[in-house]
Amino acid sequence: MKKIVILLFILSSANGFAQDALYVRKTINTLTAPLFWGRGYTKDGMKKAADFLSAEYRKIGLSPMGNDFKQGFSFPVNTFPGKMLVEINGKALRPGKDFIISNASPSVKQNGSLQAIDSTHFAVNPNLKVELKDKLTWSVATEVSTETTIEISRKNFTGVPKQLKVEIENQFIQNFQASNVCGLVKGTKYPDSMLVITAHYDHLGGMGKDTYFPGANDNAAGVATLLSLAKYYKANPQPYSIGFICFAGEEAGLMGSRYFVENPLMPLSKIKFLINLDLVGTGESGMTVVNASVYPKAFSLMNKINDEEKLISKINARGKAANSDHYFFTEKGVPAFFIYTQGGPTAYHDVFDQAETLPLTEYKDLFKLIVNFYKTI
Question: How far apart are CA 73 and CA 18, in angstroms?
């Protein structure tokens, strides 16, 4: 009878993880769909994503940290909602795949001859340049420049750029409205003390009317893992409260996490530990923990759990870095790790970071590692 009970428990746990994996995959597919348009700054992409996450928090049964799940704030951003035309030597190029434009570019409409500066750099004039690149990666600008640089993929272009036709429309938004999405499961013994899990839900949005950046690994995977953990903790309340924060504006310069730290919905001193998830959709080559050398005891504990449970193949240590939403918490004295996985697809800040190619290699093991770490920290 004892063996049957153990077997049923194992089967039940396996089925639970299978269900969670399906939920995570479905969430990533949803967040990377055209409806959310790269969870960015045109076509209401970021707002739609925030609404979706608020609805998921309600379905799961989380409580708001404040009066609402959403914590609103604003920041400046340069956007590209309109025309995105680039022709080189009379051939139209595809946005995102054949070219990208500098993220601080102003509107520009011009037809001119390109002068070679060297083998990879060309210019119509000092304010309009072309550069040949091996890889096209984009980002978000919070200001507008007087210059436009058009980066062209070497893979998709042969010959020498001689003639350029360009028509680009930008729109600078001084006060773009965004929201952090914040919820919690109250602790059974120490409700005023909190363990926190965070992930940014924004990505790069769109470049023109027809091209958007899906952001599957960056960071739909992190958000989906956070939501899966929220489901677990709602069903399994812990002695400490567990907080869940999905940040906006990370790609524009950690805007959402900075705003939260400056306007916290709970005393930051009450945060016992924080884990930030960003780029966690792979794992073939293990994972890295930022702040490992800042909090060596916590890192040693995480490694001990990982070794005992035989979960992640390798955990790399990294020091302090201002490269994701953990940073401003650390600056305020909140113990925090930023976790990202490694290996697998190399798509990053490009149109190829897609749900269908994201392996989620270490989702289950990372989930178990976080749960066990938070049981003992």
Answer: 37
In a shared domain, residues 48 and 193: yes
The CA dihedral of 97, 103, 108, 112, to the nearest 10 degrees, is -60
Rg of the chain in Å (alpha carbons):
22
The tokens describing 137, both together, are 């990666």
The answer to whether residue 151 sits within a structural domain is yes
Q: Which H/E stretch holds residue 25?
A: helix 2-31
Cα gap 130→70, rounded to integer Å: 41
pLDDT 10s digits, 345-375: 999 999 999 999 999 999 999 999 999 999 9
pTM over 0.90: yes
- Tens of pLDDT along 284-334? 999 999 999 999 999 999 999 999 999 999 999 999 999 999 999 999 999
* Residue 17 pLDDT grade (very low, low, confident, very high; cuts 50, 70, 90): low
The domain boundary residue, chosen from 131, 153, 168:
168
The answer to whether 312 and 248 have CB atoms below 8 angstroms apart is no
The secondary structure of the chain in percent helix, strand, coil, rounded to multiples of 5, reads 30, 30, 40
∠ CA 244-72-205, nearest 5°, is: 85
Domain with 162, as residue range(s), is: 83-168
Q: What is the largest CA-CA distance in the chain?
A: 83
Element (H, E) at 39: none
Q: How far apart are CA 315 and CA 313, in angstroms?
A: 7
Q: Choose among 122, 128, 121, 139: nearest CA to 106.
A: 128
Tell me the CATH number at 243.
Answer: 3.40.630.10
Share of the chain above pLDDT 70, in %: 95
How many domains does the chain fold into?
Answer: 2
Name the nearest CA neighbour of 261 among 325, 349, 329: 329
pLDDT of 9 strictly over 50: no
Q: What is the pLDDT of residues 152-180, one digit of tens each?
A: 999 999 999 999 999 999 999 999 999 99
